[in-house]
Design brief:
This protein has about 100 residues and is mainly alpha-helical. About 75% of the residues lie in helices and about 5% in strands.
């Protein structure tokens, strides 16, 4: 009976995915999620090529899913902050113009 190998970076991907959800402020979660997705890609490819050689698919897949969730939440935050900045920037600019007239 042959020994199965652990998929590379499975635990790191899971930790990054969880952190991307929990620490999703100031763009940190978005960055952690993207790093998690990048680290998950080689392991997912290796498992698809020969699933009988590797174990730890559930950990890697959970990390992949949590990284996707973190990226989506981070994308919403980035979009919200851009809209908020545009509104506040426009409001401050028009208020400044109104006061100086």
């Amino acid at each position: 009976m042959e020994q199965k190998q652990q998929l590379p970076n499975a635990t790191a991907v899971l930790v990054l995915g969880i952190c991307s959800i929990v620490v999703n402020c100031y763009g940190i979660g978005l960055v952690l999620g993207i790093i998690g997705l990048a680290l998950a890609a080689p392991g997912r490819r290796m498992y698809r090529e020969n699933p009988s050689l590797y174990e730890g698919w559930s950990v890697l897949n959970a990390g992949f899913v949590t990284s996707i969730i973190g990226v989506v939440i981070g994308g919403f935050w980035a979009f919200f902050l851009m809209i908020w900045g545009a509104i506040m920037g426009g409001t401050l600019f028009s208020l400044h113009t109104f006061v100086n007239q």
